[in-house]
Design a protein that fits this description.
- The chain is built from 14 helices and no strands.
- About 70% of the residues lie in helices and about 0% in strands.
- The termini are far apart.
- Among the domains are: about 60-160, Tetratricopeptide repeat domain (Serine Threonine Protein Phosphatase 5, Tetratricopeptide repeat, Alpha Horseshoe); about 230-315.
- With about 325 residues, it is mainly α.
- It has helices spanning about 1-30, 65-80, 85-95, 100-120, 120-130, 135-150, 155-165, 175-190, 190-200, 210-225, 230-240, 245-250, 255-275, 280-330.
- About 25% of the residues are buried.
- Helix 6 packs antiparallel against helix 7.
- The longest helix is centred in the C-terminal third of the chain and has 52 residues, at about 280-330.
């Protein structure tokens, strides 16, 4: 009985629900939508549209503004050392550069060349930077970086030539920066007289490279006053006691290694001579090994004088190159 009542109740509820939905649809369809008022101040209703107003079919694309924004973003990427992303974006802009202004085209080329320079691909950097015209200020920056690329390639005459074509006002910041670059090249070529004449223009009043100007004077003093030790003295000292000649040349850890290799061989050779005799195979072998190490120690001590000089000069040259690079970053990437 209970089951029968539940079934009857469910069927009745379904009937009333369907009837209500049917009445609601009839009500909606009976509304005259043509006479509905459209009020602009009523939320949710569409306002009247003036059919006489024209809607532009296409918004004009401002290519100059586009390239300006993209180049600003590239500069941001470079400043944050995201060079791969910057290179990707520059390559895309280079393809699209026909619609850019001449100055923007030069900027794209310059930034591409600068990234080559940063990656130490100096030949490629020169090839790209040389395409930047001198019409705009960006061309001036390109000449500075092109010059330092030649310096890294040890083509110093070409480096000076690229600097010389820049038109600058005497006494200006960039003019003094060029004097610093000239003076640095004279140190790398060991032309100390030329450095003396160029360093006279160092005013030390531009914070972007005043420290580097002082450093160049220090490098000049170190290079010009360095006196190479005598290879004969080094060899003679090592003949008296193995390793002392290298200590005289300027090395500190190497002499100890020479002593540890040579002195034990000498002791073993002497022991073999005392036990087995001077003509014994043991002494001849051990004595021969000691003689090779002993003569090699003397010869190595004499050569260490030259190698020490080369190491000192190479370290100073690396510092000079670094101090040529840093002012360019400070001046052109503030």
């Amino acid at each position: 009985m209970i089951r029968y009542l539940i079934v009857v109740f469910s069927l009745s509820l379904s009937y009333f629900t369907l009837s209500a939905q049917h009445d609601f649809v009839d009500t909606i369809t009976s509304i005259d939508t043509d006479n509905l008022p459209l009020q602009s101040d009523s939320p949710g209703l569409i306002t009247n549209i003036d059919s006489t107003e024209t809607i532009p079919e296409k918004v004009q694309f401002d290519s100059l503004d586009y390239f300006s924004n993209e180049l600003s973003f590239v500069s941001y990427l470079i400043t944050n050392e995201q060079y791969k992303d910057a290179t990707f974006l520059l390559n895309r802009l280079d393809v699209q550069s026909k619609s850019a202004s001449l100055e923007q085209q030069d900027s794209i080329t310059y930034l591409r060349g600068w990234i080559y320079y940063f990656n130490r691909e100096f030949t490629d950097a020169i090839g790209v930077l040389s395409q930047v015209s001198t019409t705009y200020e960006i061309g001036l920056q390109a000449r500075f970086y092109e010059s330092i690329c030649y310096v890294y390639l040890e083509k110093f005459d070409k480096a000076k030539t690229r600097l010389s074509i820049i038109q600058l006002d005497t006494g200006s910041q960039l003019w003094e920066l060029r004097m610093l670059q000239y003076a640095s090249i004279s140190l790398l070529t060991r032309d100390y007289e030329e450095f003396d004449s160029l360093s006279a223009y160092f005013s030390n009043r531009y914070f972007e490279f005043s420290t580097e100007e002082k450093s160049m004077v220090t490098y000049h003093h170190e290079l010009s006053t360095y006196k190479r030790k005598s290879p004969w003295v080094a060899g003679f000292m090592s003949a008296l006691f193995p390793g002392i000649g290298k200590f005289y040349a300027g090395y500190r850890g190497t002499p100890l290694g020479t002593m540890y290799m040579t002195l034990p061989l000498a002791a073993v050779a002497v022991e073999a001579a005392l036990i087995a005799g001077l003509l014994s195979p043991q002494f001849l072998i051990l004595g021969g090994l000691f003689g090779i190490f002993y003569i090699g120690n003397i010869w190595g001590s004499a050569l260490s004088v030259y190698s020490m000089k080369r190491e000192i000069y190479d370290e100073i040259d690396r510092n000079i190159l670094f101090d040529m690079h840093i002012p360019l970053r400070r001046v052109f990437w503030q």
